[in-house]
Design a protein that fits this description.
This protein is mainly α and about 160 residues long. The chain is about 50% helix and about 10% strand. The chain is globular, with a radius of gyration of 18 Å.
Length: about 160
Amino acid sequence: IYKFGDLPGLDIKIICDFPVGSGLGGSSTIVVALCQALSVIKNVRLSKQALVELAYEIERIDFGQKGGWQDYYAAVYGGLMETKYSKGGVGIVKHDVSYEFEGIVCANFFIIQYGQGRSSGEMHASIERSLETHDSSEASMLGILELVDEAVEAL
């Protein structure tokens, strides 16, 4: 809130029922939504990229939560999309899907909480360590990218 200056009398209450650190992108989405709402209240225009960067800065740098950028792009751009990361920046590729396809996905996608927790922050830290030591995680990540390419072609 402090990044938007003085907002006297503003009370914000956030209620959610997903586990903290679950890797579902909930905290990133909340930060994006809060930044967007505050920018409207303060009449500050933010581009989509500026909104992504501000939310990332708040959660990852100011708060110190480990994680990547992908959740912020998903929250800001929405829909079915690819994020393509390179040294030159990030590219967003939106995939238009039919309303029928969207309905099929929504009707057949569900999340089950089975009582065991995990920490997405710890997972990110582990991946960072693995990439620094060049162990098998790099090959696994490349395998995931190949699966993404196959999924995009199937669409």
